[in-house]
Q: What sequence folds into this?
């Protein structure tokens, strides 16, 4: 009887802990000189099949490298296997102070179209993905609290014909760091039923300091204007573009 009670209490605690956890799923389309309509970058940064040095992943301001830095709020806790052959690397971060987990997927740059399709389907509540780490069971994909896309705006190069289901009862929040993402993604995000927390109005460098800044505000439950300002301040800090221009670059909501 005592063993049963101990097991039940441990199980109940694990369920409660999992219920309190917030999840963020980041889709990174690796920069690819050959297969994306981009201004070419140095070869090692633009090899869409090599995450280790890719501009949006392993380079200085790539998602993996930047979030691993000591000044970041995140700790890399696991490198995970992916069942999707187009995802070349999958890593899990844990926030250092909060019960928030971030799953980041490095997509083969040649498969950018499928990456965006999966992102938009997830924004519609489809493609749920469950990850277990220790005693915590976490929901990503279509059941994540926040979905972020980082990379080239592939919708400049192709159009998508997606079938959406009814929006989920609890819409997810969305960040899209790509050039002119509001103009190109707005109809898809509306149809998906997601809540756009941050997207862009002009050309931009989709580097991880903007993602990190926006997520700081999101975790603190700040409003859209506050998250916009965080993104603008971070962008100006690294791009030296002037705060006015940086503020004009980012938008929250429709």
A:
């Amino acid at each position: 009887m005592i063993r049963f009670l101990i097991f039940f209490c441990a199980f109940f605690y694990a369920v409660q802990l999992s219920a309190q956890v917030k999840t963020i799923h980041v889709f990174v389309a690796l920069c690819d000189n050959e297969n994306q309509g981009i201004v070419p970058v140095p070869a090692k940064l633009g090899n869409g099949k090599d995450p280790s040095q890719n501009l949006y992943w392993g380079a200085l301001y790539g998602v993996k490298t930047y979030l691993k830095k000591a000044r970041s709020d995140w700790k890399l806790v696991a490198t995970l296997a992916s069942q999707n052959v187009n995802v070349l690397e999958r890593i899990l971060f844990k926030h250092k102070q909060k019960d928030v987990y971030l799953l980041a997927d490095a997509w083969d740059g040649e498969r950018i179209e499928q990456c965006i399709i999966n992102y938009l389907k997830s924004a519609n509540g489809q493609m749920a993905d469950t990850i277990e780490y220790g005693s915590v069971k976490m929901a990503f994909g279509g059941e994540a609290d926040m979905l972020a896309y980082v990379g080239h705006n592939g919708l400049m190069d192709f159009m998508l014909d997606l079938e959406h289901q009814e929006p989920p009862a609890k819409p997810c929040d969305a960040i899209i760091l790509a050039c002119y993402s509001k103009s190109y993604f707005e109809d898809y995000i509306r149809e998906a039923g997601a809540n756009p927390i941050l997207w862009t109005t002009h050309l931009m460098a989709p580097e991880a300091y903007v993602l990190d800044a926006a997520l700081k505000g999101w975790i603190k439950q700040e409003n859209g204007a506050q998250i916009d300002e965080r993104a603008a301040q971070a962008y100006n800090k690294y791009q030296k573009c002037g705060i006015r221009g940086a503020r004009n670059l980012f938008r929250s909501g429709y």
Summary: The longest helix spans residues 2-20. The two ends are 56 Å apart (CA to CA).
